[in-house]
Predict the structure.
Amino acid sequence: MAEEPADTLLDIRNLRIEATVYPPGEKAHDIVIVDDVSLTLEKGRVLGLIGESGAGKSTIGLSAMGYGRGSIRLSGEVWLNGRDILKGGVRELRRLRGKEVTYVSQSAAASFNPAKRLMEQIVEAGLEHGVGTRKELEERAVRLFGELSLPDPETIGRRYPHQVSGGQLQRAMTVMALVPEPDLIIFDEPTTALDVTTQIDVLAAIKKAIRTTGVAAMYITHDLAVVAQVSDEIMVLRHGRKVERNTAENIISNPQEDYTRALVSVRSIEHEQKQPTASPVLTVRGISAAYGNKVQVLKDVSVEVHPGQTLAVVGESGSGKSTLARVITGLLPPSDGEIAFGERTLSRALEDRSKEDLRELQMIYQMADVAMNPRQTVGTIIGRPLEFYFGLRGKKKRARIQELLDEIEMGEGFIDRYPAELSGGQKQRVCIARALAAKPRLIICDEVTSALDPLVADGILKLLLRLQKAEDVAYLFITHDLATVKAIADSIAVMYQGSLVRYGPKNKVLAPPFDDYTDLLLSSVPEMEIGWLERVMANRKMESAGN
Amino acid sequence: MGPIFKLVAQRIALGLLLLLAVSVLIFVGTQILPGDVAQSILGQSATPQALANLREELGLNDPAHVRYFRWLGGILQGDLGTALSNGQEIGPQIARRLGNTLFLAFWAAVVAVPLAILLGLLAVRYRNRWPDKLISGITLASISLPEFFIGYVLIYFFAVKLRWFPSVATVYDSMSLLEKLNAIALPVAVLTLVVLAHMMRMTRAAILNVMQSAYIETAELKGLSAFNVISRHAFPNAISPIVNVVMINLAYLVVGVVVVEVIFVYPGMGQYLVDHVAKRDVPVVQATGLIFAGVYVGLNLVADIVAIVSNPRLRHPK
């Protein structure tokens, strides 16, 4: 074997990862998840792995612990601290997991055992591997709680996972990974499931932890702007192969490959704000709503949507933005307020609305997967509203379906396919076509791009904009992603805890002076720029010192 | 502790209500049985005058709801009534019988519950490999065979051929604990074989379900051994379904032992019930029915309470 440089921690050579899949109705066969990937990581350095879903990033990360989910098979060489861990047995792997390499997952909420106190779980790996006594490990954990700005560092360890918030749990999981003093930590999308305002705190905590302990890290994410904040180097992956590897600086400012260039320039859609017209298509006046007569989730919300324009409703989880959609569609009758569609007032409850009301107001969902019947073909799915609203049959219906498919940039071959045969982006396009088939005046889009990879999401947004121009349809666009808002909105409503905090035309809402919440929200969106995180955090410290 | 207190109190109140409903069912059920108590006491040759006198004496001429509340009132004061067949108080007789049944059930549970859980854990540890298949196969076979068959097979081998244990499980108060245990060894073995499979398979399924969770992966990535992952991280989260099935089986050990008690001539509740059903002794049947229902509702109540208490979200509210 070639001599290792003294400071090489991890050296992955020609890694190939395969898995056996069992698709329903087909023969079981092997697929290649990762093909011929090699990488090295020096002690104390941070390598970002980036790519879309299915690129094999998480699988590569876990291979550094000799771990494969399900039926995964690893081949090649994974050298850690001077030995090939794939050659060792299960016992040897068990000795290094939780000691030399630790893991921080995407969802700390699911990764902590709900039946045990946090501290019990945090010191467990250290105790198992004899890194220290319980007392030493607990003291270290308390110190790290403080360093990562968790509240009540002395006592938070006595709580159960459900007693702390999602962002705090994510930091607690980082503490759990740090306590055994590993050489390497794998961060697997540690901030993806968090709201932007929480993400920035966790990101700062992770960066600080890496810096102060000098641990090496592999940071896996699909968000280039995030990974640029914490990594020294970035490796871009696609379809299980390496596209490019360079310093973070170079990847952002001087990408070599087309795919990397596309990732860097994602979310650069320019959209000119349109002027509001005289008569809005949808008017929501003073809506309040509650679930189960108790928890009030909407408080006196009033907005308007103008024909052929987009109103973006932004907010974090729990802000009431999806509830607003449920109220407008009639799924949740409001306790107070009025909804007008054009000139007519809509009934509060869905069952009292006319067929025409239903036709003019369509909806597209976040999960295209579950919004379609898996046993119907694309043609049946899109044809259903044509039959229901317009009574189209036979040849006429088929012709119209084809027309709609052309509109969403999908060709002839798709009409007889099933949803399972489509990619995520194609599924969402079919859902768009189904909504369009009713010839609505307003489409409610509920987080329609959040489950998609950035490049695919970009394609969907461009399509929506083009269709808006062609069909003169209005959108009520619900999202938590401010970059999406900038890309497509004409007016914006910012929601926080069920109330409207800011509302108006895009240019006005996105221009200072800001209210506190909008300011926090806007400044928390990661930007494709090295040093952005430090800049924002420094500004915030100054502000809180000034107050 | 606020919400947990309320939930437990709710459960207990529901249990009592259920028991009340069962008492109504038992009473109504025994009333619509054919035959007349006075007739069955005095026999076919009784004079109409004697029958009328006895009916008057027993209060059988009163409307049904009056008799029901009289019966219920007696039970609430600890008076289970008088057996028709021998004119003795039911209470003391049942107490001795119930004691014996609980004794048998207790020792069967002491053997069966830990064994079932251990086998379940082992089956998960070696899932889809030969130990799992062996455990599943044997327990499944034992649950598929009727109890009387297993009972006679055990008697044939261990009592007749090997002469290790007696075939008749008679126990007296004067016997020492060891002698009693020797006497009930075979019925305990039969009961264990009967309830083992159900509990073991439920333990296996409950833990396997939990094994899909992300926190199990976390535990594996801490380098814990497979058994520690299962016992420390999977088992605590599988407690409530396991306790549920354990309690149902414990209830079965008390309520469903009729056949086993008859085979081994064990002086427990089951035999007592069977004897008095044959004699049409309605008050005894009512009393035993109510006690069986009480045991069943009580144990399931315990399972519900354990499920509530073992949930950290309820035990430690935000």
Q: What stands out?
A: The mean pLDDT of chain B is 83. Residues 166 and 315 of chain B are 48 Å apart (CA to CA). The two ends of chain B are 11 Å apart (CA to CA). Chain B touches chain A through 21 residues (CB under 8 Å).
